[in-house]
Design a protein that fits this description.
Radius of gyration: 36 Å
Shape: flat
CATH class of the largest domain: Alpha Beta
Largest sheet: 6 strands, parallel
Structural class: alpha/beta
Distance between the termini: 107 Å
Helix content: 40-55%
Order of helices and strands: EHEHEHEEHHHEHHEEEEEHHH
Number of helices: 11
CATH superfamily of the largest domain: 2-enoyl-CoA Hydratase, Chain A, domain 1
Length: 343
């Protein structure tokens, strides 16, 4: 299993060119994508997202190792829902409208500003349409969340099918103050004299944990004290856990020896005997279904025969009507008896 880490500002710290290099280095392996980015250049971000979408079969999954904001959210959403996983304890998800941070060299005349406005509006529509397409969410809801320009809550993520939410227990090793509860004075103090919106987002996302903590299949926390922030453990990393094999929450098995991660095993496929048992059960169900179909056809045939027999009996009863078919003497006697009873 190969890994690609997209970290930092798109177009600066991590470029489309770097992504293509990383992809090529993965050879023919399946790829796990990890993202920790506040966003960045929409042009390069869209190129990365489009490439991932066009080659989605090569990617096993995408998961955040930090914040996923702005155009980084489009990269995250490039894979289908069943491959998207978000850990709210590791970072903040955010979708918002694009903006221009640098006006140097731009035509700021009235006509120039009109063209800039159209460019930003087109970019906004493209990003919004992409999010709606990948999530199936209501376009008005997506637009409203982009206009609000705040980190999405777990409830909001689930409501727009942003990703599968990972439930983990982490030790408290850092304090992050929710910016939504800050006063205006606190926000200004936090942001200082920063000028661009991108810098503001970076400032809000700055507080982070200092060690990687993962949860095993039983809910126990395992610490990897020297794994760089924004990365997943790899073979050779130190781990604070007893020696042996540990099945993690994502199904992978970590082999630990001497306080070091020595092997990562992929989830095992179902045993062959289980597959054979399932196949036999499926064959039995199919046979039972065919028997039921045959029984239904037989019942329908019997019903048809009963209806035909009822019709035949009714027809014969009409033919035996005494007033129409019996001989004249008997008919006269019957008529006489009727007259007698009338009198």
């Amino acid at each position: 299993m190969a890994i690609i880490n997209i970290n930092g500002i798109i177009g600066q710290d991590y470029t489309y060119k770097q992504f293509i290099t990383d992809y090529a280095n993965c050879k023919s392996e399946q790829i796990r994508l990890f993202i920790d980015s506040p966003g960045g250049d929409t042009y390069e971000g869209n190129l990365i997202a489009k490439f991932i979408q066009d080659h989605s079969t090569r990617f096993d999954s995408v998961m955040n190792t930090g914040d996923v904001a702005s155009i980084a959210a489009s990269i995250f959403l490039a894979l289908p829902f069943e491959k998207r996983f978000f850990d709210m304890t590791k970072g903040i998800p955010l979708i918002h409208n694009p903006y221009i941070t640098d006006f140097d060299g731009l035509d700021t005349t009235a006509e120039g500003l009109k063209q800039i406005t159209k460019y930003v509006e087109d970019d906004e529509k493209e990003i919004r349409s992409f999010i709606v397409k990948q999530t199936g969410a209501d376009v008005d809801v997506v637009k409203a969340l982009m206009d609000i320009d705040e980190g999405l809550t777990e409830e909001q993520l689930m409501s727009i099918n942003f990703a599968n939410i990972i439930k983990r227990e982490f030790k408290a090793v850092a304090y992050f103050k929710n910016p939504n509860k800050m006063t205006n004075e606190e926000v200004k103090a936090q942001l200082g004299e920063q000028k661009s919106m991108l810098e503001k987002i970076l400032a809000l996302f700055k507080p982070k944990t200092v060690a990687v903590m993962l949860t095993d299949a039983n809910g126990a926390s395992i610490e990897f004290p020297e794994v760089p922030e924004g990365s997943m453990p790899q073979v050779g990393d130190k781990v604070s856990a007893p020696d042996g094999e540990v099945v993690m929450a994502d199904g992978f098995t970590y082999v630990i020896a001497g306080g070091v991660l020595t092997e990562i095993k992929e989830p095992e496929a179902a045993p062959a005997e289980d597959m054979e048992a399932l196949k036999s059960e499926l064959a039995a169900l199919k046979a039972e279904n065919e028997t039921l179909k045959a029984s239904t056809a037989q019942m329908n045939e019997i019903k048809a025969q009963v209806v035909a027999l009822q019709g035949k009996i009714k027809s014969q009863m009409i033919e035996l009507d005494p007033e129409e078919k019996i001989d004249g003497d008997v008919k006269n006697r019957v008529t006489g008896l009727r007259d007698k009873f009338k009198n």
